[in-house]
Amino acid sequence: MQENNTQGTDISTLGEFGLIKHLSKSIKLNQTSTLKGIGDDAAVLNQSGKKTIVTTDLLVEGIHFDLMYTPLRHLGYKAIVVNVSDVYAMNAEPKQVTVSIAISKRFTLEAIDEIYEGINMACEKYNVDLVGGDTTSSLTGLCISVTAIGEADEDQLAYRSGAKVNDLICVTGDLGAAYAGLQLLDREKRIFENNPNIQPDLTGHDYILERQLKPEARKDIFESLQDAKIVPTSMIDISDGLSSELFHICEESNVGCQIYEEKIPIDYETHKMAEELNMNYSIFALNGGEDYELLFTVPLDKFEEIEKIPDVKVIGHICDASKGKYMVARDNTEIALQAQGWTNFTE
Amino acid sequence: MQENNTQGTDISTLGEFGLIKHLSKSIKLNQTSTLKGIGDDAAVLNQSGKKTIVTTDLLVEGIHFDLMYTPLRHLGYKAIVVNVSDVYAMNAEPKQVTVSIAISKRFTLEAIDEIYEGINMACEKYNVDLVGGDTTSSLTGLCISVTAIGEADEDQLAYRSGAKVNDLICVTGDLGAAYAGLQLLDREKRIFENNPNIQPDLTGHDYILERQLKPEARKDIFESLQDAKIVPTSMIDISDGLSSELFHICEESNVGCQIYEEKIPIDYETHKMAEELNMNYSIFALNGGEDYELLFTVPLDKFEEIEKIPDVKVIGHICDASKGKYMVARDNTEIALQAQGWTNFTE
Questions:
Q1: What is the CATH class of A14-155?
Q2: Which of A64, A95, B68, B158 could form a Cys-Cys staple with B91, CB 3.0–4.6 A?
Q3: Chain B residues within an 8 Å CB radius of A344
Q4: Which CATH architecture has domain B2-155?
Q5: pLDDT tens track of chain A, all 347 residues?
Q6: How does pLDDT run across B121-170, given as a tens digit for each residue?
């Protein structure tokens, strides 16, 4: 647990401006649209001719992450990923981010550096500039707030509201793995808490752990769709589970849907974990979360082109709103889909 | 203390999507540049031809505010104000904000509504659209993260780095009052904690209390400067005290400065409070914070025009960097100015 490192540098030795100066050193600006980054009252951007896309997400210790098993570097990385994922879900290109962090005094400078290392790695990977933010102390937990800014031509934007009857429903990658990883980490944490002599056993679960701790956004799919000149009729990123996201698209587009359980892409490790826990793996995909895959719809006549894009799977189609939103299960029964959302207020 | 209201509606009865729907009802969009607000993966803005200004600030319970004496409505209002203030400090016009809030379960729906009432009031006053955000629970304190987005023509922007030798140094309003208000609230809180039978005595201190609890950003000055066709050579908003902000402008502009203690505008109530506390009132203005007034420089030949703008005072001038950054005190001694910044890591 990095936060208990007492051997590092006390943040108070730097003061606010010292800390800002220190953190700014590692920041590189690459976007031509960034006219002014950190160092003034605000950043200045130049998105001439394009539309500006803005999204924001807040990660809170104890709710969205557990520092007992989340490396700080991964946390910084994930904070950026979940936001650029929302920009891709608009079929837009992320360009800048701002990052605000509240950290308790128990954090050393080295711990903050680790968070920013992850942030900078993600900024490099997704080619976005870190242009502003705020660093403050917290009396209690760690809190990271990121705002991502992107751009797109208006006719390229994919809202949740554009799905049409007969459109194909597509998902990228595989689903439920991040949730499976979380279940594993929670189980091992409980075992460790009951008996600190038992070392966590995480072998053979690399994929689901990585999906939970270091998710990626689908920059590649955004680019493939651009290359194929396909503008999805609707799109959303899968952060709250397939069921919930499909529900949103149908509600916003005023349509129904039919998907097939057997077509939902699920990784072998997710299967295995669900089995170990005596759970249904489809539940992981439908109601789990944090996949950061893309769910989108395209007109039926794009079927052949979509088939050519690696890592995209057609799992069903859009139908009339009157037909409802449901999944055809493996046993051919029809199951109504429901919106979930987070439940951290009710837990 | 609103947070301990046990008679209100439990947030868990709504769930995430219910809460978002509930909060969205009261949101009005007024800006033509807002193409899409809340309700998709991201907001979409259209700032055709102008530069985009982005700034963000994080307010954390126990660090930036004390719920013992901060009404939630005021807190929501202030969270918007401190951000639009940064946009005005670029000589730009705020247009949109996103708001992310982490709230503990002890908050009722009515408490959240109060925060958003303040947020909506500020959005209306400053004519900005609330276009996105995130609402999550927190295991501990309340945390509000706001990002403000504005626009300006490039030649209208006022950076910290443009001050020139002989420029006049101007401030708006009066300084130190918010800090005086904080001192008063802290004193009365301590008295109350020692003896809950003693009611806080806040009479005769309305102005400094309002400055602390419900600050305003200088939209009027931004507009007056536009009307007078004056583009400040440099500008910053005063959130960390005059000394610190002047230090920033000098450092970024590579110049020195000379200001006069007797010219620093200080309200009578601030004077009075400093006297009661046996402190020097100039210290309140120089090292206090949260004034959200504007500090800016203009060329010497703008003197007459600047004089005509109500609530703007010339307090000194920019000189060569070699002359240093100092204040001529009432007794004619010269005092070197220092950068402060927050010290909440060291307290």
A1: alpha beta
A2: B158
A3: 136-137
A4: 2-Layer Sandwich (3.30)
A5: 344 445 688 877 777 778 888 888 878 888 888 988 888 888 998 887 899 999 999 999 998 999 888 999 999 999 999 999 999 999 999 999 999 999 988 888 899 999 999 999 999 999 999 999 988 888 878 999 999 999 999 999 999 999 999 999 999 999 999 999 999 999 999 988 888 887 777 888 999 999 999 999 999 999 999 999 999 999 999 999 999 999 999 999 999 999 999 999 999 999 999 999 999 999 999 999 899 999 999 999 999 999 999 999 999 999 999 999 999 999 999 999 887 654 444 43
A6: 999 999 999 999 988 888 878 999 999 999 999 999 999 999 999 999 99
d(CA B51, CA A156) in angstroms, rounded, equals: 21
- Whether B3 shows a pLDDT value over 70: the answer reads no
Tens of pLDDT, residue by residue over B54-70, are 999 999 999 899 988 89
Q: How many CB atoms lie within 10 A of CB B250?
A: 24
Spatial distance between the Cα atoms of B201 and B25, rounded to a whole number of angstroms: 39
B347 pLDDT above the threshold of 90: no
- B216-234 in b/e form (b: 16+ CB < 10 A) is bbbbebbebbeeeebbbbb
Interface of A with B in 74-133 (CB under 8 A): 86-87, 89-90, 92, 96, 98, 100-102, 105, 131-133
Residues of B in contact with A136 (CB under 8 A): 58, 60, 63-64, 342, 344
ipTM for the assembly: 0.89
Of B45, B133, B139, the CB nearest to A56: B133
SS3 state of residue B177: helix
**Strands (DSSP E) found in A61-122:** 93-104
- Phi first, then psi, for residue A31 (nearest 5°) are -80, 135
Query: Two tokens at A138?
Result: 């917290």
Closest CA of chain B from A269, distance in Å: 29
Q: Contact B35/A51, CB-based, under 8 Å? A: yes
**Among partner residues B44, B61, B100, which is closest to A53 by beta-carbon distance?**
B44
Interface test with A, best of B24, B35, B54, B290 (most A CBs within 10 A): B54
DSSP codes, A63-74? TTB-TTT--HHH
pLDDT in tens, B169-202: 999 999 999 999 999 999 988 888 888 887 777 8
CA distance B306 to chain A (A): 22
Longest alpha-carbon distance in chain A: 65
**Residue boundaries of the structural domains of chain A:** 14-155, 168-336
- Single out the residue of A12, A16, A10 nearest to residue A101, CA to CA: A16
**What's at A81, amino acid-wise?**
V
Give B55→chain A minimum CA distance, Å.
Answer: 5
Distance from C-alpha of A122 to C-alpha of A79, rounded to nearest angstrom? 9
**Which CATH superfamily hosts domain B168-336?**
PurM-like C-terminal domain (3.90.650.10)
Asked if B62 reaches chain A (Cβ–Cβ under 8 Å), the answer is yes
CA nearest neighbour of A99 among A32, A46, A34, A20: A20
